[in-house]
Each structure stands twice: as C-alpha cells, then as structure tokens.
Amino acid sequence: MIRSRQKRAFFWILVFLAACAWGRARENVTVEEAFWAYDDGRIGLDELEELLFYVENGDVHGACEEWEALGGDPCRKTLAEKMEDWKWRGNLSYGLSLDSTGSVRNSHSRIAIGLLRFSLEMRFKSESGGDVHLEQFRLLYKDRRSFSVFGHIVASDVRSAVPLESRVGNVWSVGTRDAEAGTILLTDTSAGIRAAVGRAERLQFLAMGLFSAQGFRDAFFRVKMDAADVQLSYSSGWRTPLLYASARTPRNAPLRFRFRAYFHQNPDWSGVFRIPQMVKKNRFFIYLAGEYPLASWALRFSEKTSAPLDSGFARNVFEVSARRSNKAAGLEAGMKWTVAGDSAVPVVFLRSGIRLFEAESLFCEWRETLKMPIRERRYEIRPGIRVDVGENVSAIARLIIRGPRSLPVVLREETQMQILPKFYVKSLMELRAMRLRQLHLWRLGVEAHWSF
Fold first, then answer.
1. How far apart are CA 415 and CA 23, in angstroms?
2. How far is residue 170's CA from residue 213's CA, in Å, rounded to a whole number?
3. Which of 286, 303, 348, 388 is an S-S bond match for 261, by CB 3.0 to 4.6 Å?
C-alpha cells in the first residue's frame, strides 16, 4: 500500500511539473516528440524509424539534423560545438520516460564539461528499471587548425554523411581552411586515414579508408557543397556501394526545397556504417519537399518514393497544401495521397488557427480519409490551445478525437519553462481513454537541464 502511494505521489509530482510549462531552444529530440510528429502526420513511418534510430542510439547531432531536415525547429549548439569560448563551462541533464502504468520505461543522463579547448561528455542510460550503464564517452580537443577525439566515434568526427556503428577509438586531424588530414584508430584493431580538400561552403572533397589485418574494411568518398551533398560508401561485406545524395536551397530562396535519396542493392549491412531501417529495406528511398510563396499564400508540396528490396512495386506519398496567414489568424487546406501498387488512399485536411499572442493560440485540424465503400472512411478532429507568458513560459494542449469507429480519445500536453537563467525543465505528457472522462496516463517524458 505504501509503495503504491509513493508511486502515485511520484506520478502526480511529474504531472504538476508538466502543468508548469517552459520555453527554450531545444538541445535534442525526444522519443515522445518523434511519435507525436508521426501521429500529427508531419512525418511518415519511414521518417519516424530513422528519427528513432538516431534518438535511441544517443546520436544527438544526427537526430537534430534529421529533425531540422523534416521541418522541425532547429537545435541549439551543444557544449562541444561552443569552442570559441575559453572559459569554464558545463551542462548537466536528466530525463526519463514513463509508461501507462507509471513505471519508468527508460532514463538517461548527460554530463558535459569544458575548459579551454577541451571538453568531456558522458551519457548514461537505463531501460525498464535496469542498471545504469555508460552509453557514450567522448573526450574532445578542438582549435582552429586541429581536433582529436577519444572515446565513441560518431559520423561528424570523420565527416561522413552516413551514420556510423558504435565504435570506440581515436580520431585525429590537422589542417588549414582549404585542406585537412588525419588518422583513425579503433579498438577492434582496425585503422585508417581520412582527408579533405576545399571548403564546405564552396566545394569540398572528403574521403576515408579503414583497414584491418585481414585487409580492406570500409571507405567512403564524398563531395560536399553548401547546397548539395553526395557520398559513395562501401564495406567489404556489401554487394554494391551505397549512394547517398541530398540537396537544398537557401532559406530565403523564392522556391525552397530539400531532396534526399539512397540507392543500393544490399541484403547484408555488416561494416562500420550504421544504416537506418528505411534504407536497409528499400532499394531506393527518395524524399522531396518544397515551398513557394504566392501573394499572401504559401504553396507546399512533398513527395516520397521507396522501392522495397522484397517486392517489385514502389510506394509513393504525395502531399500538397496551401496556407494563408496574417497577424490575426491562419488557414491551411490540402490533400495527401498514398499510392502502393493498385492501392491509392487520399486524405484531405483543413487547419485553422487564431492568434491571441505571437503564435497561434487557438487552433483546430480536421482530417478525412476517403475510402470506398463510405463506411470505411475515417475522420480526425484535433482542437488545441497554446498559452505563452513572456519568453520563458509556453504550454500546448491538444485533444484528438477519431471516428466513426470507437477509437481512443487522446489528450497531449507539451510544456516548457525557464525556471532560472541556466536551468529549465521540459515535459511531454499523453493521456488516452475510450471516453474523455476516463483519461489515464499513456506516455510521459520529463527532462531537466542545467548549464554552468
């Protein structure tokens, strides 16, 4: 009985924190945010799998890049990237996720400290109430001409556009603005070299090669520009190389778009490169999105095409919409088609919002899935409210009602609050039930950050 009361008290303390709301630029992406973006229709299943791929493996840099590429708000720089400041600096963070019973699904913590050109980062994780284990350790030295990393190596250390499997070792590099070279040493007895020529904002060529006592292991060649990026990667166990290509226009371009594609013919993915699930199961995956301003309207479009390795037909998802907004309100309408073989499922949607503050304060969305016969049609209604108090307080609550079949009602709340100049807390809570008055906890995530 006492333990039950303690659990209940702990749960309501977290709910109280969730009700207090907090506003600040994000430093990472959470599991709850990834699922909510999918539930809202902002990303598809493939994007969700890739985003979770980065988040659950502790790759903050990759998760933030993926989140921004999918249209999310940008992440602020992490401690290791703020190398222009020579003074003592640090960051402590802790987060946990609860399931529908109030039990801890997982918890994670991060310790980062820096002095002069050195920084140390350690990440710890625990799942299902188990023992806490060290997930990532990195000791970094960086100045204008060189850098060195000891510990867990990530893709950005070797300048790869494709993520890497978890490897421990050392990466060292030295160079000028127009060229750099370095070495890679891993604890699995493999070693290699890397080099780069040119400038990333203009034209840059990058390459890496890894070898072991048995011979060649992994390599990539990359051509990078400000608006485009192409990388050809290969591991000794692959049937064919993996071709990655991406492109984007500047944010102030009249027609804004972003493009990303993967091509390969590999059923096996052994090697140093860590490949997202959506790439492993598709011969090619292409994502294209754009926006064009027209008078007071913004026309948006997106297209995704994937061809599974185990089937002969491709899956295409098209979406078009038009949005108009002013100081008082906003309105958006559009349609989404999902085509796979002989199957085509259209969804129409309408979104509206009223601004009482700087952001839309009262908003609602309606979706209708058009199917034949009529009894197979589905709809969703999503009313919500946002409250901002100054620059430090922000709270969003959204209700999701689905029909016509009996489906759970969902209530979601996202809160952020800057408690002190260098301390803030963030929470995301989801309640579900078949009836509104029977809502119970479904998912809760809480994070606290302190910078010094």
1. 8
2. 18
3. 286
Residues 241, 309: Cα–Cα separation, whole Å: 15
Identify the DSSP state of 76.
Answer: P
DSSP SS3 for 429: strand
- Answer whether residue 413 is part of any domain: no
- Shared domain for 197 and 149, answered yes or no, is yes
Bridge partners (DSSP) listed for residue 171: 149, 184
**Phi/psi of residue 47, nearest 5 degrees:** -65, -35
Please tell me the distance from the alpha carbon of residue 155 to that of residue 149, in angstroms, as a whole number. 12
Segments forming the whole domain that contains residue 70 = 28-76
DSSP category for residue 87: S
Across 41-45, 55-59, 279-283, which has the greatest mean pLDDT?
A: 279-283
pLDDT confidence bin for 123, thresholds 50/70/90: confident
196 and 229 both lie in a single domain? yes
In a domain, 330, yes or no: no
Read off the amino acid at residue 350: L
- Same structural domain, 120 and 159: no
Q: In the predicted model, is pLDDT for residue 85 greater than 80?
A: no
Residues 152 and 267 in one domain: yes
Shared domain for 206 and 103, answered yes or no, is no
Q: What percent of the chain lies above the pLDDT cut of 90? A: 19
Dist CA 62 CA 152 (whole Å) = 14
